[in-house]
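ok, trying the design again with the full structure, not the truncated one.
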């Protein structure tokens, strides 16, 4: 399947805590199920997510334009177009992408999709448990915060 850039529309989101992002969900548009592939643009001051790491899923980020600041643990690294960040499944390196520049930045993010995964958010103490399309977000004490499906 060929996807022309005019065919896959970006999902625009404005979140008080994450800023303004535009995400093109290429893998879903193309009918792929074994991995997720997205092109995401962060406006200045925006970030991709809370710091997190996956027990069973690999992630890779490839910078297309602008400057992307990658936070890994307590360390920050500025990536330029052509730079890549990789996070192997099971490596407890909490990470996120943010835009600390004054211009938009765009990157492709690719991740495996496994049947079961646990994603850890060390800053909040929460864990996201996914089984198939169902997910539940648990507080640090094990109470359910939210549930849903993809």
């Amino acid at each position: 399947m060929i996807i022309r850039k005019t065919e896959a529309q970006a999902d625009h989101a404005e979140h008080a805590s994450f800023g303004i992002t535009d995400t093109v969900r290429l893998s879903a548009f193309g009918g792929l199920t074994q991995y997720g592939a997205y092109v995401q643009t962060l406006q200045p001051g925006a970030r991709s997510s809370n710091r997190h790491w996956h027990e069973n899923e690999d992630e890779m980020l490839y910078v297309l334009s602008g400057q992307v600041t990658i936070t890994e643990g307590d360390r920050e690294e500025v990536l330029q177009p052509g730079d890549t960040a990789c996070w192997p499944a099971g490596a407890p390196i909490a990470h996120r992408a943010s835009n600390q520049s004054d211009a938009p930045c765009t990157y492709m993010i690719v991740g495996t999709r496994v049947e079961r995964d646990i994603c850890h958010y060390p800053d909040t103490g929460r864990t996201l448990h996914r089984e198939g399309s169902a997910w539940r977000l648990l507080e640090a004490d094990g109470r359910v915060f939210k549930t849903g499906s993809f």
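Keeping the full-length input from now on. The radius of gyration is 15 Å.
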